[in-house]
Amino acid sequence: MTSFLAALASSFPPGQLATDQLQLAAHAADQGPVLEHYLPVAVVFAERVEDVQAVMRLASEHAVSVVVRGAGTGVSGGAHATEGCVVLSLERMNRILEIHSEDEIARVEPGVVNADLNAAVAEYGLMYAPDPASYRTSTIGGNIATNAGGLRCAKYGVTRESVLALDVVLADGTLIHTGHRTFKGVAGYDLTGLFVGSEGTLGIVVGATVRLRYLPTAVETIAAFFPEFTTAAAGVLAVGKARVQPAIMELLDGNTLVQLDEEQGSDLRSRGGALLLIQTDGFAARTEAEIIRRELSALGGTITTEDHEEAVRLVELRRHSRGAEVDDDFRVGEDGAVPRSQLVHYIAELQRIAAVHGVGLKVVAHAGDGNLHPTFWVGAGEAGKVPALNAALDESIDVGLALGGTITGEHGVGQYKVRWLPREQREEVLELQRRIKALFDPQALLNPGKALPEAIDA
Amino acid sequence: MTSFLAALASSFPPGQLATDQLQLAAHAADQGPVLEHYLPVAVVFAERVEDVQAVMRLASEHAVSVVVRGAGTGVSGGAHATEGCVVLSLERMNRILEIHSEDEIARVEPGVVNADLNAAVAEYGLMYAPDPASYRTSTIGGNIATNAGGLRCAKYGVTRESVLALDVVLADGTLIHTGHRTFKGVAGYDLTGLFVGSEGTLGIVVGATVRLRYLPTAVETIAAFFPEFTTAAAGVLAVGKARVQPAIMELLDGNTLVQLDEEQGSDLRSRGGALLLIQTDGFAARTEAEIIRRELSALGGTITTEDHEEAVRLVELRRHSRGAEVDDDFRVGEDGAVPRSQLVHYIAELQRIAAVHGVGLKVVAHAGDGNLHPTFWVGAGEAGKVPALNAALDESIDVGLALGGTITGEHGVGQYKVRWLPREQREEVLELQRRIKALFDPQALLNPGKALPEAIDA
């Protein structure tokens, strides 16, 4: 390790290399629950593609593992430091290299913040559609690593659908280019799609060509308060039955409203026990909103047609409904998705599970695509209740899978959910993925212990 | 080979196994140009997943290569028989297993015809969006193998965006399941995306869960005739600049109009030198159509607001603009895509190339996503002109790539375009794909010689 650190020090100026405790600690974890805490041996701040290649060449030579990191806003521990690793930060590679209005694409470095790209392309009447709740701080590279979703994906698709081409540094330092600048292209296997969502375990994304969409001319927001969460969830299906595709369809339960009120001084909880927040956009925004209001009123929803300012405020509140909280031993946010028809049933099950295990529960959901973010908690510091919390988490995973769901809709497996993956995927599918991992990263240097469980006999 | 055929005969009843010359010849090629003609040694008609597994187990044991086939409507030779292969037809696996209206998904066997699925889900107000021109005859399995596009993909995405989960039989006969029933899901690597578009070289798709979209409430069609093809192409950019996303945006040149007139008795060519055919759909169809008409009129287009019947007829004409022709030595249709801004320039280059080499040219384009289908031809039987035809094809590929394009937007590499792939992708990227292929198919049994070029030293 000493020789590796010496080699780093001779390759990078002090401003790009940190080994002090403060910086190591600051780059040791993302916002996900920490199972085992490690400090990296060093943090390298890459400023160009060649820096990333240099780190990988040294890491390969010295057999040191590399954890790549963007803004560190992930919530599954995908960027947690592992034992003896170097953390490679791509935050400084934050240049928008090109915006081409007629081609409707942008080329960016991985450290570009999602909101910065959106601000830059808005001048051209364009938008970058994937919008995780962290869009103000998270990077495009991190979004790609997790195949991030967000609020708008029911209509516009997840990150994968907006990534056309990638520049990727492989484990041995080789730089490759995958994909195409065109919207369509089927030459060769879909390597681009394989890298998207691979959580830094197959290669390091150092550049991306992304497809842009048209910034909607009009946006309408509908806030519908319901007495019960389950009735609000039924509203999601009613909108679907009317064959209207909203851009955003978010469901917030009573406990989430209470928390928002406490943090923001709002009065949401007094207006209902659950909030269904819907945005339509585009040339038919108003027509679609009228249909939705009619459907939700018929279900007993109290519809507020928010004015624009209030609408923006509510959506922003929803985006920040995780608040300042970071998951820990006493509070864990989940990310399962279930088929849309199971939403109502799954939410009832979550409430049952929380009651049985005596733990707290609040739920927000990207309801349009059946992706739920339940948060289970016990009192901070109540170590005796942690087993109940974990039992509730495990049971919620099993029930979601039994309903045809997945353990992670958009946050990624990271480190925290590795233990649940074998509940969803059979051993032969896991083994196929391990072999792909070994093909791309034979020394197992890239983000070890993330995304995939070790082989049973390992 | 005799022992393999004997093993097949003891595994399948005569009705599922053909070795007569008529059937072998009928299953020897798809609609792509044939570089080397081979008859398969046998054709097996699978009726269930177990049949596919049985074929792969026998093929592995006897080291016989397997060419999988749906309806045989591919145009890149992806389903051409290769020397000593067995052709495995999935046409009889044509059951729609489930349509779930609330989940907005369908589960199908691979032999289901695209149009049959669309007819079945239309009753629920849903549609399966990918619509290759062959949708009346091509199968979902074939669409998945090529990651087929179609007319509607600028708005609704290509096949990849509609495939949620797959059942795949691997080379050794193992059955695996990839993906999820939910719209979103990021557990593990994107194996589903890796199989989509892999042209039967990594595994055999025996089942698919597909996402359905809402059948549009309204459709508006705009037919705009322009004197010149290049001005019509400029219209595509004008619509984009107005930030309107049509469902369909097809461009037909004068020679295509002449051919349609001859085959269909229409009078299209007399109305202009190029036709831009645009459909908007959904609740804003009329508003969007009005904007488009205004933009195209300003560019000098002659706008015909077609009545519904005429609109359907024009779109159907476009879908069949390949006519009954099948590519051969004297006529080859291409499938490149270029960035949208290069459309006008590329079309002018195609016209220049055709003139220089003295070959015929007609062009249709899915203009919304820059995907062009130029057809170059010489007189049938004029063997002396074939070198000029091939020179024109090669040059059109090189020019498209120089403009930032790809050699295939939606038809796939198949057998015919293998020689062009190294012009688009660098050796290290090809080698990575060869290693993935070797991982999935170590005996190289699945569709050999397709999708990827052999290694240079092979």
UniProtKB/TrEMBL annotation, chains A, B:
Residues 36-215 form the FAD-binding PCMH-type domain. It comes from the Bacteria. Its cofactor is FAD. SUPFAM superfamilies: FAD-binding/transporter-associated domain-like, FAD-linked oxidases, C-terminal domain. InterPro entries: FAD-bd_oxidored_4_C, FAD-bd_PCMH, FAD-bd_PCMH-like_sf, FAD-bd_PCMH_sub2, FAD-linked_Oxase-like_C, FAD-linked_OxidoTrans_Type4, Oxid_FAD_bind_N, Vanillyl_alc_oxidase_C-sub2. Keywords: FAD, Flavoprotein, Oxidoreductase. This is FAD-binding protein. The lineage of its organism: Bacteria, Bacillati, Actinomycetota, Actinomycetes, Micrococcales.
